Amino acid sequence: MLCSLHMSRTRLFLGIGALLALIAVVVWLSFPRTAVSPSVSAPMPAETLTATSSGAVTATASPLKPSAYLFPIAQGDVIASWNYAGYLNDNGPLEAGALKQIAELKSQLGKDNDYMLYISLAQEYDHLGDGKSAYEYLSRDIALDTKKTTGVGWNNMGVLMEKLGAYHTARIAHAEAVKIQPDISAFQMSMVELMVYHFPKDTAGVEKAFKDAESLFGASDPVLLDLRKRWQTFL
Known about the structure:
It is a single chain. By secondary structure, the protein is mainly α. The protein folds into two domains: 1-31 and 149-235, Alpha Horseshoe (Serine Threonine Protein Phosphatase 5, Tetratricopeptide repeat); 42-72 and 81-148, no CATH class. It contains nine helices and two strands, in the order H-E-E-H-H-H-H-H-H-H-H. A two-stranded antiparallel sheet has the order 1-2. Strand 1 and strand 2 (57-60) form a beta hairpin. Helix 1 runs antiparallel to helix 3 and helix 1 packs antiparallel against helix 7 (185-198). It is globular, with a radius of gyration of 18 Å. The model is unreliable at 1-62 (pLDDT under 50).
């Protein structure tokens, strides 16, 4: 059961770059620029944001100390190892291709939309099983979106933290993704699964996650109904 959860989390993380990249671009261009009070006060980045003639937001990167942007690990969470099996870890052509892609993405920083570049860099490092680097770029990504206009980076951070066993940190990140964009089904489902599998005794928290998801999927959604049954077995 937990294995299927981890597979689900991995599929969601790996697919987020391809599926939600388009969402993030649309959000970046059209989502209302209203500030949302975060559950975690992410430090403001030292990048300078500028608007292009097309309306897209880019950033000119400047050197930052890690303490200025790294997403805080929640109290009580311990990350035993930042490394895990990445599907491109073959010590061969797949790994070489990923490293080449990383170099290309880094060469574009400060020239293009750094928000999307950080998302892509984190994904590439995740493919290599380098959780520390994925964490760094997702932290940069979250800090860069000072207006809290998209939940993509937050959701990906939640998925990564689950993979690393930092479940309280994952909860904070997933909750923020849902708060920013409650209409994104992947964000809602991520929150429900996290609560069911890792916080089943928190009845109020689990029920809230279900309620929020049901407002989007409907109370009769078969996946949610199945998750409710699984939750009951943990009580």
